């Protein structure tokens, strides 16, 4: 489900300076906004975690 940007509340995140710099460079290199790059990374991690959990559950059946 896609949310309207105006309906998404800001969520301040503290992160190490080096990590933020790395994501800022990734965003710049890919002509993307920093927010997009961070949301993309979090979404990828979420999907991989869900996939791995399902694989573990299926292996235990």
Short description:
The chain has helices at 17-29, 34-59.
Describe the secondary structure blueprint for this structure.
Elements: H1 17-29, H2 34-59
Helix pairs in contact: 1-2
Given helix and strand content, the structural type is mainly alpha
Measured by DSSP, the beta-strand proportion falls in under 5%
Determine the fraction of residues in helical runs and give it as a percent range: 55-70%
Q: CA-to-CA gap between the ends?
A: 31 Å
Shape, per Cα inertia axes: extended
What is the string of SSEs from the N terminus onward? HH
Number of strands: 0
Poorly predicted residue ranges: none
Give your account of this protein's structure.
The chain is mostly helical and 61 residues long. Helix content is 64%, strand content 0%. It is built from two helices and no strands. Helix 1 packs across helix 2. The N and C termini lie far apart (31 Å).
